[in-house]
Design goal:
heterodimer, A: 180 residues, mainly alpha, 8 helices, B: mainly alpha, 80% helix
C-alpha cells in the first residue's frame, strides 16, 4: 500500500465521521459565506498566515542556530532567548488565529483532508516538544554572560525542532494537493 | 528568438514538462520554496526591526547583520532555485500573470533597497552601530525592506489563485 493509498483511505474514513456534518455547518455560517464571497479573503488570510510563519520560524531559527553555534555567538544564550522567544509564541498565536480563519473560510478543504490532520498532529507534537525542550534548556541559562557550550542532546533537540517546523510547513503547502 | 518564444521553449523543455506533469514535483518544489522564502523574510525582518530600532536595541547593528545575512543568502539561493523550477513548469502563464510580474518587481526593489543601504548608509555604521536611535537612512531601509518583502509574499500567494486566469 503506497503512501497516497494510505491518504485516500484516511480521507475515506474522514468522510464517515461527524466531521462532514461539522464542515458543512461551518460552511453555512455567515462568516464562512462572507469569506467565500470575497475573492481576496483567502489569499489575504493565507498571506497573514505566512507572515506569522516568517516571525515564528525566523525566531525559532535564531534560537536553535544559536544552540548549534551557527549564529549569534557573540551574544549570550539568555540574550538570544530574551530577544526571540516571545516572538515564537506570539507568532504561533497569530498562526492559530489565521489558521482558524482558513478553516472557517474553506471548512471542507481543511477538515476532510488527511494532510490537514497530519499537520495538526505534528503541531501538537511540536508544541509539546518545544515546551519540554524549553524547560530542559532553562538549566543551561542559570549563569548569563558565561561562555556555554551545548551538549549533544541539546544540539539534537535544536536540529529536531528546526526539521519539525520544516515538515509542518511542507504539510501545510500539501494541504492544497491532498488526494481527496 | 523573442522573449515569448523563450518562455515557450523553457516550458516545453523536458524539465519544464516533467515538473508540470509529475504528481509530486510541483507541490514538493513549491513546499521547499515556501520554507526558503519564510526563512529569507524571517531573517530579513529580524534585521529590519533592528534598523527601525523596534527590537534588540542592545544588539549592535553590525553583529545583527552578520548573524542574519548568511542565513538570508543561503535561503535566498534555495528560494531562487526552487522558484526557477516552478517557473519552468508554466513559464508563459507566469509571464502573463500580473501578480507574478509584481512579485518580481518587488524582488528587484527589495534588492535595490538592500544595495543602496549596504553601499551608502552602511559606510557610517561605526557611528551608529550601538546607538539607541538609528539614522533616518537606516530606518527608511528597514521600513522599505519590510514593505517590499511583505508584498513579495502577498503577490506570491496571489499567483496561486490567478495563474489560470491570464493567458
Amino acid at each position: 500500500m503506497s503512501f497516497s493509498d494510505l491518504l485516500f483511505a484516511f480521507t475515506e474514513w474522514l468522510r464517515t465521521t461527524p466531521l462532514v456534518e461539522t464542515a458543512l455547518s461551518i460552511s453555512e455560517h455567515p462568516l464562512s459565506l462572507l469569506i467565500a464571497s470575497h475573492f481576496w479573503a483567502i489569499p489575504i488570510i493565507q498571506t497573514l498566515h505566512i507572515l506569522a510563519l516568517t516571525a515564528a520560524f525566523g525566531s525559532v531559527l535564531m534560537i536553535n542556530l544559536r544552540i548549534l553555534g551557527l549564529t549569534g555567538n557573540s551574544r549570550t544564550f539568555a540574550q538570544t532567548v530574551k530577544r526571540f522567544r516571545p516572538w515564537t509564541w506570539w507568532a504561533l498565536l497569530v498562526l492559530v488565529i489565521t489558521g482558524i480563519g482558513m478553516i472557517i473560510g474553506e471548512p471542507i478543504r481543511e477538515l476532510i483532508n488527511p494532510i490537514f490532520w497530519i499537520k495538526m498532529g505534528l503541531i501538537v507534537v511540536l508544541i509539546l516538544l518545544s515546551l519540554w525542550y524549553q524547560a530542559a534548556l532553562s538549566r543551561y541559562t542559570v549563569e548569563p554572560g558565561t561562555a556555554l557550550r551545548f551538549g549533544a542532546g541539546a544540539r539534537l533537540g535544536a536540529v529536531g525542532l528546526i526539521l519539525l517546523w520544516c515538515v509542518i510547513m511542507f504539510a501545510g503547502r500539501w494541504i492544497a494537493y491532498a488526494p481527496v | 528568438m523573442n522573449l515569448g518564444q523563450l518562455w515557450e521553449a523553457i516550458q516545453a523543455s523536458s524539465l519544464g514538462i516533467y515538473i508540470a506533469e509529475s504528481a509530486w514535483a510541483f507541490p514538493t518544489i513549491e513546499s521547499v520554496h515556501v520554507i526558503a522564502i519564510v526563512t529569507v523574510v524571517g531573517t530579513v525582518a529580524v534585521m529590519d526591526l533592528r534598523l527601525l530600532g523596534l527590537t534588540a536595541r542592545d544588539y549592535p547593528v553590525t553583529v545583527m547583520s552578520r548573524d542574519t545575512l548568511t542565513w538570508t543568502w543561503l535561503s535566498f539561493v534555495l528560494a531562487a532555485i526552487t522558484g526557477l523550477l516552478l517557473f519552468a513548469s508554466k513559464a508563459t502563464n507566469y509571464m502573463a500573470n500580473p501578480y507574478f510580474l509584481a512579485k518580481m518587481a518587488m524582488l528587484i526593489l527589495a534588492g535595490l533597497n538592500m544595495a543602496v543601504f549596504h553601499l551608502i548608509t552602511w559606510r557610517t555604521v561605526r557611528e551608529w552601530d550601538t546607538a539607541a536611535i538609528m539614522p533616518t537612512g537606516a530606518k527608511i531601509a528597514g521600513a522599505l525592506s519590510l514593505f517590499f518583502w511583505v508584498l513579495v509574499i502577498f503577490f506570491g500567494r496571489t499567483i496561486g489563485f490567478t495563474l489560470g486566469i491570464y493567458e
